[in-house]
Write a structure and sequence with these properties.
Chain lengths: ~350, ~160
């Protein structure tokens, strides 16, 4: 029954969005609809598999001089669903530009906690590698926050930017907070040169006992006071691409005390004639003994790949990955992906 | 005098034609100068090139008088669009399209309007306060003005 009501809500949002598109397209003629999808094939454990990625429907619309809308809905494979597919609302943001480059955003956001989560979203054609860094698999980054955000961009000569977000926090739904405490995200960045962005952020939340993990079934049996600190350096120039991020997690419970975790990755790529980019990515996850919130599995990963940007809407990637997992041992895989926008 | 075999003549045509087109594009790119026009409301009378680039990259949401910045560009498939990509963005057409897609997809900026013709672009700039656009020449349409870039009408 719950699933049916979720589908009804999703359909309502989709229909509302489509109605908004038609209305706005007629009035403003500045509504954009885009889609993104990817397919992969991978050789892992001596077996070749083909896989559908997410199909992402993306809409932006300028409602008037001050208000704009952004919506992102994803259709993806979900094993537990009766149809083996599900629809999820990834972002619904109403933005109000109140002065200059300062905005108020309300809705469901991708938490602006690190560069990757704030930049790439679900369009795989934009990803520099096939998959996200492995810190996302360990539930270290709170992907979404439903709430209100104050945002400034490109301020001054250093093109300074800030985000201050207050939201429902981990364990909440998109329509109801599960406790009285709000999550707080504070992020600042600067873009001192073309292609260069340096940023730091902080995330604070009290995760209540009984909360369910994002995109998973695990239920937390303790109140967890969480702080995340991140730092990132990104440079995407004409010839070289570098992206490095580090995240320090600090989870505190009454029974386990404070447990520190560290996750980092370094991506580097070299552009050959703009379209061809050989690249690598190194990932490292390290959790303190007794960590109970993150998926505690110390991992090291090395990715070596090649990206061919056929055009701005089509990218083909081929990757080899070596993954060492403390819990599952070593894995070698080769993956190819075609990612498109339409 | 020995006549050239027909097949060589055909191959010659195949060789020469792309060269001529390529040379023509280079000459167009080098000779074509650009003019920045705006609606009479919003944009200032003159700008530095660095300021223009910043505006055209969506880094500015409002002009000093509070009017919203609206960007109008020629489609990147047109010659004028390609020259704009080269001279203003210092990027290929493909990279400019990707640049805007990433910005709008990330919710960081509103997408510019890409026009099919210079006339369409000039008309839209004239109709929308706060608009700015790039052309090869201005026809002086009502409610538009030419913005001086580094003190010059064209660059």
């Amino acid at each position: 029954m719950r699933k049916i009501s979720n589908i009804v809500v999703c359909n309502f949002f989709l229909l509302s969005s489509l109605f908004a598109i038609n209305f706005s397209a007629y009035c403003q003629n500045n509504t954009q609809i885009r889609g993104f999808v990817d397919v992969t094939s991978a050789i892992k454990n001596e077996k070749l598999s083909f896989a559908l990625g997410e199909q992402d429907l993306f809409i932006t619309s300028e409602l008037n001089d001050r208000f704009s809308f952004l919506g992102e809905s994803v259709f993806k494979f979900t094993s537990g669903s009766p149809t083996t597919f599900s629809v999820s609302i990834e972002r619904i943001i109403v933005k109000y530009n109140y002065a200059g480059n300062h905005n108020i955003l309300i809705g469901k956001h991708h938490t602006p906690i690190n560069y990757w989560n704030d930049t790439y979203h679900h369009g795989r054609v934009f990803f520099p590698t096939i998959y996200r860094p492995i810190l996302f698999d360990a539930h270290i980054i709170p992907l979404h926050t439903t709430g209100i955000s104050f945002q400034g961009q490109n301020l001054g000569d250093l093109r300074f930017g800030y985000d201050l977000m207050i939201g429902n926090g981990i364990g909440s739904t998109d329509v109801l907070d599960n406790d009285k405490r709000k999550s707080i995200t504070a992020a600042i960045h600067a873009k001192p040169a073309d292609g260069l962005r340096i940023g730091v952020s902080w995330y604070n939340d009290m995760i209540s006992k009984g909360s369910k993990e994002h995109d998973g079934d695990h239920i937390y049996n303790w109140d967890i006071h969480q702080n995340l600190f991140t730092g990132s350096v990104a440079y995407f120039g004409d010839k070289v691409e570098v992206l490095s991020e580090i995240t320090a997690g600090r989870d505190k419970t009454d029974t386990t005390g404070i447990k520190n975790s560290l996750a980092a990755y370094l991506y580097g790529g070299v552009k050959i004639k703009e379209k061809y980019v050989p690249y690598f990515r190194l990932d490292r996850l390290h959790f303190q003994e007794g960590e109970i919130f993150f998926d505690k599995d110390n991992k090291t990963s090395v990715v070596i790949g090649f990206r061919y940007n056929i055009n701005y809407l089509t990218a083909v990637k081929l990757e080899y990955q070596y993954l060492h997992s403390e819990n599952n041992g070593n894995t070698n895989s080769v993956t190819a992906q075609v990612a498109i926008g339409f | 005098m020995k006549r050239q075999p027909k097949i060589l003549s055909i191959n010659g045509t195949f060789l020469v034609a792309p060269l001529l087109i390529w040379a023509g594009l280079i000459i167009f790119s080098q000779q074509s100068s650009l003019v920045v026009i705006s609606n009479v409301k919003g944009a200032p009378a003159s700008m530095k090139m660095a300021e223009l680039r910043s505006v055209m990259k969506g880094e500015r949401q409002r002009w000093n008088d509070g009017t919203k910045v609206n960007i109008f560009l020629m489609k990147t498939t047109t010659d004028l669009g390609r020259v704009t990509c080269d001279k203003v963005y210092k990027m290929s057409s493909d990279r400019v399209k990707r640049f805007w897609l990433e910005l709008t997809f990330g919710g960081k900026a509103n997408a510019p309007t890409f026009c099919n013709s210079a006339d369409e672009l000039e008309s839209l700039v004239a109709q929308n306060p706060g608009s700015i656009g790039i052309l090869d020449k201005s026809n002086g349409k009502k409610d538009t003005k030419v913005i001086l870039i580094d003190g010059k009408e064209s660059f």
